[in-house]
Backbone:
């Protein structure tokens, strides 16, 4: 037990030190007035949900770029929704714990990071002139359930699913010089700060799983798989397709039948699914849910 507590504090001490050294203030570090150059994609075309389908081929070059903007806005919108949920789960996690511990202080630091991220994503969506896309009612209901009931395993596992998937997409975007500078800068800031969150969640999740009972793990496996399903299915809001004149329901069906899009999701989630397999979190009745989420 002493070892777990010591390890937990060692992780926190390291992450608090890194956080003090490299944190961004998007208010100051991003030029929100800079114009968005015309004819420039907001995300790499091959990562877009319709890429490679007849529906994609039928779009004009301008429509393709417009769709890339709305897919990024949709992902940022779900990012905000998820960060707000994560903040709620982290607040539950630290309630009643010793505030003098590095673990609690790092959790508070992460909540501070997520506050700034959500504002940054909101400003980016606003700068695009895009709507703030809301997840479907079923996902919002699951979010409320998770926010009210999540224990350690659900909190850190759900955090990892959303953070790792977004991280994979943003690492690619920040390095791609052909993309909109605003998207690249927002991605860079998020990637730098999320690396700490991912480390925090990975270490804590392993400790939580090791210290859990079998029955509890069985329940958590299902909840986490369902949360992963929500992350991938809420990523591209069907209304994003309406921005380029496509029928939302029909285009969404095309996207989910698009093997390229499913491959992108599986690629973006490969680090987290690999880790969860190591921890024994993708087993039994949870497996088909992960498959339906297009993550395995
Ligand atoms: Fe974030
Ligand atoms: Fe995060």
Residues:
């Amino acid at each position: 037990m002493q070892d777990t507590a010591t390890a937990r504090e060692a992780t926190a001490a390291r992450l608090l030190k890194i956080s003090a050294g490299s944190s961004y203030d998007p208010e100051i570090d991003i030029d929100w007035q800079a114009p968005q150059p015309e004819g420039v994609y907001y995300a790499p075309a091959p990562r877009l949900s319709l890429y490679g389908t007849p529906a994609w081929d039928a779009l004009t070059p301008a429509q393709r770029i417009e769709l890339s903007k709305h897919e990024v806005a949709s992902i940022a919108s779900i990012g905000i929704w998820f960060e707000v949920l994560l903040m709620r789960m982290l607040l539950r996690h630290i309630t009643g714990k010793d505030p003098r511990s590095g673990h609690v202080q790092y959790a508070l630091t992460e909540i501070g990071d997520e506050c700034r991220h959500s504002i940054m994503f909101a400003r980016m969506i606003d700068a695009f002139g895009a709507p703030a896309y809301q997840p479907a009612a079923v996902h919002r209901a699951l979010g409320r359930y998770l926010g009210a009931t999540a224990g350690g395993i659900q909190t850190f596992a759900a955090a990892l699913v959303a953070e790792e998937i977004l991280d994979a997409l943003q690492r690619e975007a920040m390095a791609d010089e052909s993309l909109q500078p605003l998207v690249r800068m927002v991605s860079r800031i998020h990637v730098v700060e999320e690396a700490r969150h991912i480390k925090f969640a990975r270490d804590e999740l392993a400790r939580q799983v090791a210290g859990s009972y079998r029955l509890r793990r069985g329940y958590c496996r299902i909840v986490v798989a369902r949360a992963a399903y929500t992350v991938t299915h809420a990523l591209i809001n069907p209304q994003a397709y309406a921005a380029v004149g496509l029928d939302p329901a029909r285009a969404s069906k095309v996207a989910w039948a698009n093997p390229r899009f499913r491959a992108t999701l599986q690629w973006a989630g490969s680090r987290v699914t690999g880790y969860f397999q190591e921890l024994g979190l993708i087993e039994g009745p949870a497996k088909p849910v992960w498959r339906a989420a297009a993550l395995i």
Observations:
- Residues 114, 163, 194, 197 surround fe (ii) ion (ligand 2) (CB under 6 Å).
- Residues 8 and 185 are 32 Å apart (CA to CA).
